[in-house]
Amino acid sequence: NQPLPEGGWLSEVTDVTLERRAELEASRRAALHDAVMAALPIGVLVFGPDRRVAMVNPAYNRIVADSPVAPGETMRELLLRRARQGQYGPGDPTEQVEEIIASLDQPKTYLRHRPGGTITLHRSVPLPDGGQVVVVSDETQLHLAQEEARRRNDILTAMIENTRHGIALFDKDGFTVAANTLAEEFCGLPK
């Protein structure tokens, strides 16, 4: 309201319905985004174009509990801390960090054997704005199961190879699936 020189008031009314709806929709989407990030079982870490942590979900810090991150921390600080902890293997921590930063322009996937004994799978992807997103999952149980399967396979292979009988396995179409050395020799099966 503004007073007029000859008396009276000037009142202006602006319809802000569309702006208010947009604000409510943005708030709804932000709340949904936060709920999804909190519920994910995989870790998500996002660096902004300034290479500072812009976002990290609870799963990320749970999976990498030996080296958690916080919003605002720089990528260089984080990488250097982890290099000094020995997470990137032997070598000069500063050189390791520079090598990692130099390779950020390409997507990468790698396994990391963490100091606490866990094995994590990391996927790193550059964002269009110059930032970076890192997704991490705990692969320890899968890795242990694969190791156990390899160990059992080695035992069975040794047993089958050291028997005095030729042993062959064929599929339903009659093709050889597996055979030990004696079966290959006795029956002329392809190696």
Q: Quick one: how many beta strands? A: 9
Structural class: alpha+beta
Specify the number of helices: 6
Q: Kindly report the spatial arrangement of strands forming the biggest sheet.
A: 4-3-7-6-5
Mean pLDDT: 91
Instruction: List the secondary-structure elements in sequence, H or E.
Output: EEHEEHHHEEEHEEH
Which stretches are poorly predicted, pLDDT < 50 over at least 5 residues?
none
Which radius of gyration do the C-alpha atoms yield? 30 Å
Q: Give the termini distance in whole angstroms.
A: 94 Å
Briefly say what this structure is.
The chain has 191 residues and is of the alpha+beta class. Helices cover 41% and strands 21% of the residues. The protein is built from six helices and nine strands, in the order ββαββαααβββαββα.
